[in-house]
Specification:
The complex is a heterodimer of chains A (about 375) and B (about 375). By secondary structure, chain A is α+β, with helices and mostly antiparallel strands. Chain A has 13 helices and 10 strands. Chain A is about 35% helix and about 15% strand. In chain A, the strands form 2 sheets. Chain A has an 8-stranded antiparallel sheet, covered by helices on one side. A two-stranded antiparallel sheet of chain A has the order 6-7. In chain A, a hairpin with a 3-residue loop joins strand 6 and strand 7. Chain B has about 375 residues and is α+β, with helices and mostly antiparallel strands. Chain B is globular, with a radius of gyration of 22 Å. The chains are: A alpha+beta (about 375), B alpha+beta (about 375). Chain B: Keywords: ATP-binding, Kinase, Nucleotide-binding, Transferase. Chain B: This is creatine kinase. Chain B: One of its GO terms (cellular component) is extracellular space. Chain B: One of its GO terms (biological process) is phosphocreatine biosynthetic process.
Chain lengths: ~375, ~375
């Protein structure tokens, strides 16, 4: 057990003296963290030395927004979710629709279980994309890992990815040492990720040592992409233009499973358990870690008074086409699943496929000046 | 550093070392240009990674700002910070060369002298107010027994604030004043402090953020100033305390008098409560950034030098006078309207009186030069020797 002597030193101060001032805060952590819980957990440390103060720092430093509820805490390793469960279980429950500490999560990456999804109307659906994250067992997570670990993850990832062939054959571009030409191409392809600027991320410590150990891998066809050592060890993305979500999901599942096999051979499978599914840095991404979505033209539906209600009932969320926290442009929206934990990958992508199909039908009706009242769905 | 502390450091470090080698962990400093990158070798890294201070500050924490901020080809940043007083001892193998490089060849065996007796300053009450618009002296102080801003916990930071308030509340006369905590400042108070150029805000510089000193903002941060608005203390910004004496015009002597009197009074108030400032005879006052060791003092003026600043020998003159220029927004800003911030370049190896003397004498000379150039006369005979 690693001893965190800084944490021991802090125990000299009372709970009252150390407890954060959360009076102006509006995030999940602030909602849940009482003095009692703080007092109970502050003396603990995970085996790799991650402490309660480390978990909550990002939420202390970022009070949040009156309308957006951020999570306000991160995991530093797989054990964080166990050692700090008294804090994280209620947060998980709040964030993931009442998910209980005794609930079991199901993983289903069998793309054949998806019904339809190959015929979303390309006149409306401009592109389709599925992303998730994966953490490599035996390593600590981005808020906490050392340069040695991060480089170890990068090395393993490169080995795994370079052994892929066929439609997955591709190349790795480390952020450090990218040529200007490569960088411009990656930006033009919308693949490049940059050093995080959001204080939500930087306050957790995940941007340390940038850009050491970070990079982007993609296949030659530019339809399968992996980010290494950004907010999670791996972010895996399958995407293409048009509305063939079935194909995107097939490639996603096949690619992910191939990668997982290779990591397992090295005795470093992905972090997963039957309660939380895939373990990721942010509690909001537990379960499937999956966001499946489309860019879709909904100029009429988006101005309909029931738009938000329809999305809620379909268990979908909207974002602008720049991603989270951006505005939509020209009536084009990013529509994706709202859930992550408590339903499987297939189920979540099914919701997107079915929901988008319905919304496109609604859009067409509204174009013709017809009512959509008869089409409003029940709560899924 | 006692043997007992050495043993603790070693034992703690052994417990926290993981299975990665020094080579696996050594930062990539190939694009870097800062003092930490200049001096940190792989051998040094492998030795120092096995040590940790009694409060748990590690080598990786010391160097993190320098790893995250490669630096600038023309500005040499320090690239490392202290987390507590012991950092300078436990990691001396790295910090001594950094200190030597930054502070003009200051050796590990050198002694620093402290002189806060304002009577020892000669002149300084007559800098020409037609040229010298304002005068200011600042320094920092750390309270012994507490971790420094990159490392301190909320409990420690609040205690530093509490102790500082107690000390400052008991100041009287010209120094009597009030504390404004950042977190419950009213809009009116905030506006006034901005207008007075007193308010400090959450740091945005990545150099500071990477060290961890902005955690929990604005908890336990605040500004104290006297009723006359000539003496100001920042609590828990980059250092535990930053102490500033300032006023309009060229009476640096009065500014320095108040500075010394106030500082000495605050120090004795802390001592009454059983707390002292971090100080030792080698490094003088111990502060978060190695660049501020010694006196931690920057004394300067805002002065009009529209002609002098365009003279071919301006930089050379400043260098010889051991002065530096900044824009009137402070470090890394540009001069506006020919008005420059002129201050001492040194911190360590000279006393407070010596540094302020250099500013006083240097500014007097620069004013003479400016007047000559206004009249179209040469300044060649005025160029000083290297101080």
């Amino acid at each position: 057990m690693t001893k965190n002597c800084h944490n021991d030193y802090k125990m000299k101060f009372s709970v009252d003296e150390e407890y954060p001032d959360l009076s102006k805060h509006n995030n999940h952590m602030a909602k849940v963290l009482t003095k009692e819980i703080y007092g109970k957990l502050r003396g603990k440390s995970t085996p790799s030395g991650f402490t309660l103060d480390d978990v909550i720092q990002t939420g202390v430093d970022n009070p949040g927004h009156p309308f957006i509820m951020t999570v306000g805490c991160v995991a530093g390793d797989e054990e964080s979710y166990e050692v700090f469960k008294d804090l994280l279980d209620p947060i998980i429950s709040d964030r993931h629709g009442g998910y209980k500490p005794t609930d079991k999560h199901k993983t289903d990456l069998n793309f054949e279980n998806l019904k339809g999804g190959d015929d979303l109307d390309p006149n409306y659906v401009l592109s389709s994309r599925v992303r998730t994250g994966r953490s490599i067992k035996g390593f600590t997570l981005p808020p906490h890992n050392s340069r040695g670990e991060r480089r170890g993850i990068e090395k393993l990832s490169i080995e795994a990815l370079s052994s892929l062939d066929g439609e997955f054959k591709g190349k790795y571009y480390p952020l450090n040492g990218m040529t200007d030409a490569e960088q411009e191409q990656l930006i033009a392809d919308h693949f490049l990720f940059d050093k995080p600027v959001s204080p939500l991320l930087t306050c957790s410590g995940m941007a340390r040592d940038w850009p050491d150990g970070r990079g982007i891998w993609h296949n030659d066809n530019k339809t399968f992409l992996v980010w290494v050592n950004e907010e999670d060890h791996l972010r895996v993305i399958s995407m293409q233009k048009g509305g063939n979500m079935k194909e995107v999901f097939r490639r996603f599942c096949v690619g992910l499973q191939k990668i997982e096999e290779i990591f397992k051979k090295h005795n470093h499978g992905f972090m997963w358990n039957e309660h939380l599914g895939y373990i990721l840095t942010c509690p909001s991404n537990l379960g499937t870690g999956l966001r499946g979505g489309v860019h879709v033209k909904l100029p009429k539906l988006s101005t309909h008074p029931k738009f938000e209600e329809i999305l809620t009932r379909l268990r979908l969320q909207k974002r602008g086409t720049g991603g989270v926290d951006t505005a939509s442009v020209g009536g084009v929206f990013d529509i994706s699943n709202a859930d992550r934990l408590g339903s499987s990958e297939v189920e979540q992508v099914q919701l997107v496929v079915d929901g988008v199909k319905l919304m496109v039908e609604m859009e067409k009706k509204l174009e013709k000046g017809e009512s959509i009242d008869g089409m409003i769905p029940a709560q899924k | 550093m006692s043997e007992k502390v050495e043993n603790i450091c070693h034992a703690m470090a052994q417990l926290t070392l993981r299975e990665w080698s020094a080579e696996d962990e050594f930062p990539d400093l190939s694009q870097h240009s800062n003092l930490m990158a200049k001096h940190l070798t792989t051998d040094m890294y492998s030795r120092l990674r096995e040590r940790v201070t009694p409060t748990g500050f590690t080598l990786d924490r010391v160097i993190q700002p320098g790893v995250d901020n490669p630096g600038h080809p023309f500005i040499m940043t320090v690239g490392c910070v202290a987390g507590d007083e012991e950092t300078y001892e436990v990691f001396k193998e790295l910090l001594d060369p950094v200190i030597e490089d930054r502070h003009g060849g200051y050796k590990p065996s050198d002694k620093h002298k402290t002189d806060l007796n304002p009577d020892n300053l000669k002149g300084g009450d007559d800098l020409d107010p037609n040229y010298v618009l304002s005068s200011r002296v600042r320094t920092g102080r750390s309270i012994r027994g507490f971790c420094l801003p990159p490392h301190c916990s909320r409990g420690e930071r609040r205690m530093v604030e509490k102790l500082s308030n107690e000390a400052l509340d008991s100041l009287t006369g010209d120094l009597k004043g009030k504390y404004y905590a950042l977190k419950n400042m009213t809009d009116a108070e905030q506006q006034q402090l901005i207008d007075d150029h007193f308010l400090f805000d959450k740091p945005v510089s990545p150099l500071l953020l990477a060290s961890g000193m902005a955690r929990d903002w604005p908890d336990a941060r605040g500004i104290w100033h006297n009723d006359n608005k000539t003496f100001l203390v920042w609590v828990n910004e980059e250092d535990h305390l930053r102490v500033i004496s300032m006023q309009k015009g060229g009476n640096m002597k009065e500014v320095f008098n108040r500075f010394c009197t106030g500082l000495t009074k605050i120090e004795s108030l802390f001592k009454e409560k059983g707390h002292e400032f971090m100080w030792n005879e080698h490094l003088g006052y111990v502060l978060t950034c190695p660049s501020n060791l010694g006196t931690g003092l920057r004394a300067g003026v805002h002065m009009k030098l529209p002609n002098m600043s365009k003279h071919a020998k301006f930089e050379e003159v400043l260098k010889r006078l051991r002065l530096q220029k900044r824009g009137t927004g402070g470090v890394d800003t540009a001069a506006v309207g020919g008005v420059f911030d002129i201050s001492n370049a040194d911190r360590l190896g000279f006393s407070e009186v010596e540094l302020v003397q250099m500013v006083v004498d240097g500014v007097k000379l620069l004013t003479e030069m400016e007047k000559r150039l206004e009249k179209g006369q040469s300044i060649d005979d005025l160029i000083p020797a290297q101080k």
